[in-house]
Amino acid sequence: MRNDWHKSMDERVKQFKLFHGRKNERPLLGFFVESEYPVFRYPFAKKLPMEQPLKPGDFNLDEFVADTLRLFKRHEECGGDFIYSASAFWGIPWLEAMLGCPIYSDRNTGSIYAEKPDKVNLKFSPDNEWSILMKQMLQALAKAGAGKFPLATTRMRGVADLLSAIYGGDEFLFKLMEEPDEMRKVIADLTDLFIDAGHFQLKLIPEFHGGIGSFYYHTWNPAGTVWHQEDAAALLSPDLYDEFIEPADHKIVDAFPHVIMHQHSTGFVPTAAYIRMGMSVLELHIDAGGPSAEQLYDRHLAILKEKPLIIWGDIPEADLDWIFSKLPAAGLAVNTVVEDFEQAQYLWRKYVEK
Question: What is the residue range of 153's domain?
Answer without folding.
Answer: 9-353
